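Study this one:
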Amino acid sequence: MVRVRGLLAVGVCVVVLAGCSAQKAEPAGLTASPTPVATASPTPSPTSTEVTATDLSDAELGIVFVDTPDLTGPAASAHDAVAIFEVEYWRSKTTGGTSPALVQFASPELVRKVEYGVQRNSEDGFGFDGTLRITISDVTIDGGSATASVCADYSDVLFTTVDGSAPQSFQEIDFPQYERSTTRLSTFDDGATWRPEDATFEGNSC
């Protein structure tokens, strides 16, 4: 707060003596210096926090995101949507049942793909344990659509069997170390949120 002090100049009455008689001077008029007006400095407008890509690693679930890219805005939101899908996809694999969150989040077509994969794993008699490492890269925005590359690294994943035998590594069951896929997304609110529409397997190298 700025305190402004006005300076008040008061005229002093002067008594003039002339001979034996005294004349009383008229009081001078009261004068005041102009009161300075405090000028308020403009308040800066608050800067909205820019959305940035999030590392959604979950040690308890056993999923780690490697080299989270430095993204902002719609690209960051698209990245996070892919990461959420990978988390719930891995949860589905490790629990042997489709994650309820995935049903609410991804397209029906993509959910059916996950359900089919989980069912096949169950029929083949093996499950997943250990730690899956995911790298999301090449996030590209094209209007209301987006794509992202995903590399799944199974080097620290253990494969369990229904007969209760010791978990095996990917080498022991002749499983590829890497799976590369492309996720396609769509948005209906100018990139603030994205829905995974499809995931396409691209090969066993990243």
Remarks:
- DSSP finds three helices and eleven strands in the chain.
